Please model this.
Amino acid sequence: MIGAVILLLVLLLVTQAIFNSFQKKHSFFDKKLMNSLYSYHLFFLIVYYTYAYFNPSDSKNYYKRPQTPLKSWGDFFGTGTTFMDFISYPFINYLNFNYEMMMVLFAWFGFIGFLFAYLFFRENIPVKIKVFGRFDFLILILFLPNMHFWTASLGKGAPIFMALMMFAYAIKNPKERKFTLLLASLIIYFIRPHVFLFIGVGTVLGYMTGREKISFSRKLLVYVGMIGGLILVQDQILAVAGLEGSDDLLSDFEEFSDDRGGELAKSGSGVDMSSYPLPLKLFTFWFRPLFFDAPGLLGLIVSVENLIYLLLFIKILKKDFIKFLKKSNIVVKMSITVFFLSSLALTFVMSNLGIIMRQKSMVMYFLFFVIYYYLAQKKYDKIIKKRKLQKAANNLQVT
Model:
């Protein structure tokens, strides 16, 4: 436990240095807000650690596996779960990190995800939006408890969320942030190859259809990087579902999803989604559990958050939303593509509410970004319209 406290202090100093760096780069950076968010995230580290102490937790297996006898660091290099063990190996076996120290380290990775989420939102959307009458949109979504719970422990949730938000931040200026973009892409690919596929497709579509005028060199950089990367790793992506070498990807994926969904539905919080129509599958993935099917106390808490998701989602169910998407920029189109493709794929293999709560945390921020941008655009349009009317009124008075 002493080691974990020392590590907390070291990471606090590192975090403050990172804050100072971003404060110099971005005039909007709110160091006080980020320190509050950091403290809030550490609270959920304590919550998750307490939860894991009294309940079965994957974090314990993530700590034990890298200590497997007769296995070297290189033996753990690969994609998926084994890459998590590859990341943990040097900390556990060379630096002698105990379980508590690993929990602290990965919780810090999770916070870095929230830091980049903040940068991603504020850099692209300078307009502040109030929702539900009084709540600042950005602050509300940054402090959603379920997001922090699943990214405050040793496991895939923290590093994949960190990498996704790093990618989202870096893609705005890929030339200037190429190291961040490359690092994020590698982490996403090695932890979840299929998510890298969604990110790649979303980015390419965004650059092809976004309203901005992009230089040829910048487009070429993105196209070659993302399309080339997808071609190089296509077999590894398909291997996630055992589809490498398949002659009929569609039917083989359908068989895989039926088998996977059936296995997950057998657990205590399972739901049989195999017979659901697609809209209901998506609703289940995005907004359940709700109060009527919440699995335990944690499920009731998550139900409140899911209700917030649902109420925010309702805000884009407007006639002009499709028109907004057509005219939107690269980042908005990338975000909606990543969110929808990820949701579409995961709904076919997720039939357990507990796993759904954990899995969707890595992609919900892309939906929040689209909602936030849409509301900000409407507010901006109202301001412009009001100014035009005021100008016209002033001209009439002059004449």
Remarks:
- The longest helix spans residues 364-398.
- Residues 253 and 362 are 22 Å apart (CA to CA).
- The beta strands are 130-131, 135-136.
